[in-house]
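Page 37, continued from 36.
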């Protein structure tokens, strides 16, 4: 369902006293996610430039190994950034369809404090903790 965007006053912060996921709050989180996405993409571009400009022609094996290790770390960081952009895109879709801010397991609102800290959160703290406990007890060792 299409929604009109609301104006977000400068300095606005969502409050538990206001209606949860009202148009202003949704727009606040939409803007926050878009800004975060831009930062991640900018950082990814810088990483790519660094990887392109680095030319590991080190004569010393130890130096070459250090450069390759650094390169592997950069590539892992880039992969994490790619996954984060995907999560941000998913959150923007949830804002658009009206499901943003609600736990995907319980349909209860996710706390504003949690959404401020982790705008891509899909689980409430309680559901996340339960999920982590389950993973801890059922993982293959």
């Amino acid at each position: 369902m299409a929604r009109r965007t609301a104006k977000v006053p400068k300095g606005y912060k969502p409050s538990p006293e206001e209606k949860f996921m009202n148009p202003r709050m949704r727009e606040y989180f939409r803007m926050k996610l878009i800004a975060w996405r831009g930062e991640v993409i900018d950082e990814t571009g810088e990483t790519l430039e660094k990887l392109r400009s680095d030319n590991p022609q080190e004569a010393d094996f130890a130096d070459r190994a250090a450069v390759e290790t650094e390169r592997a770390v950069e590539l892992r960081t880039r992969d994490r950034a790619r996954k984060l952009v995907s999560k941000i895109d998913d959150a923007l879709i949830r804002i658009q369809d009206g499901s943003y801010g609600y736990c995907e397991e319980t349909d209860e609102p996710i706390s504003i404090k949690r959404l401020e800290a982790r705008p891509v959160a899909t689980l409430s703290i309680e559901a996340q903790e339960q999920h982590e406990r389950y993973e801890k007890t059922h993982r293959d060792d």
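DSSP finds four helices and no strands in the chain. Flag for discussion at group meeting. The first helix runs from residue 23 to 53.
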